[in-house]
UniProtKB/TrEMBL annotation:
It comes from Rhodococcus wratislaviensis NBRC 100605. One of its GO terms (molecular function) is DNA-binding transcription factor activity. This is Putative GntR family transcriptional regulator. Pfam families: FCD (PF07729), GntR (PF00392). CDD domains: WHTH_GntR. Residues 18-88 form the HTH gntR-type domain. PANTHER family: TRANSCRIPTIONAL REGULATOR, GNTR FAMILY (PTHR43537), UXU OPERON TRANSCRIPTIONAL REGULATOR (PTHR43537:SF5). Keywords: DNA-binding, Transcription, Transcription regulation. The keyword Transcription applies. InterPro entries: GntR_C, TF_FadR/GntR_C, Tscrpt_reg_HTH_GntR, WH-like_DNA-bd_sf, WH_DNA-bd_sf.
Length: 255
């Protein structure tokens, strides 16, 4: 297939004509997303791609740069150099997403209230379908939380990872990806807020006990109870971490 097959010579009226590199990048992107080129697998050599798409080497290299920026390929150096298919990391979207939220005047209260909508549902789904390995993963996090209650080191991060793991266990890929992205914004705020509480050890202990109780609901596959309890828990935590309006800005958590 060459660039002529994309119809670049007959653009729709008022539509920007894509650059040759963008068209090639779009085709390669679809191949990677469809799984025709597996993660870690090399793309065809440059000479083959140039001939296949009927483009110049500079256009092909620009297409590869676009894919590299999107995290869909990595350029391998050395004797086995060349592009290989990769899986984009959520870090690529976190800062952009954070800036959009900031520009639209959203704040951490918006994010937390959004999580209050879907996390209880995820908790129910997790309780209904949790596997033995899921439970072991959650119990491992719980054990780490217990060790961090008294000294507070890393407790905020561990507690938020518990939330994220709970959503992952729901089996819903969209919710899991959303919470992974939001965790890097709201999780940092929760950790910072936790360290400012006067009774922080007491609050850490309360959070740990709530998480321990949730593990019990999941272990017994009590979906309705898990959903109701998690909604109540998140509402109680929300009152604490969102109590100071001056600390709700997103911009301070940009990298």
């Amino acid at each position: 297939m060459t660039v002529q097959d994309y119809g670049v010579n007959s653009p729709a009226r008022n539509r920007r004509i894509p650059k040759v590199a963008e068209l090639v990048a779009a085709e390669l992107r679809q191949k990677i997303l469809r799984g025709e080129v597996a993660e870690g697998e090399s793309l065809s050599p440059e000479a083959v791609l140039v001939e296949e798409y009927g483009v110049s080497r500079p256009s092909l290299r620009e297409a590869l740069r676009l894919l590299e920026q999107q995290g869909l390929i990595a350029i391998r150096r050395g004797s086995h150099k060349g592009p290989v298919a990769a899986r984009p990391d959520s870090d690529l979207v976190v800062n952009a997403f954070t800036m959009i939220l900031q520009l639209r005047k959203a704040n951490l209260a918006d994010i937390y209230r959004f999580r209050m909508i879907f996390e209880p549902v995820a908790a129910r789904m997790a309780a209904e379908s949790a596997s033995d390995s899921d439970l072991e993963s959650l119990k491992s996090l719980l054990a780490a939380e217990k060790d961090a209650v008294s000294d507070g080191e890393n407790f905020g991060e561990l507690a938020w990872r518990f939330h994220s793991e709970l959503v992952r266990m729901s089996g819903n890929i969209t919710m899991a990806l959303l919470v992974e992205t939001l965790e890097k914004i709201s999780g940092r705020h929760a950790s910072a807020a936790l360290m400012r509480w006067d009774d922080k050890e007491e609050q850490r202990g309360r959070a740990y006990r709530a998480h321990r109780r949730m593990v019990g609901f999941i272990e017994r596959h009590e979906g309705d109870k898990a959903e109701q309890f998690w909604a109540k828990h998140m509402a109680e935590v929300g009152k604490l971490i969102l109590e100071n309006p001056d600390e709700l800005s997103i911009i301070e958590f940009l990298d």
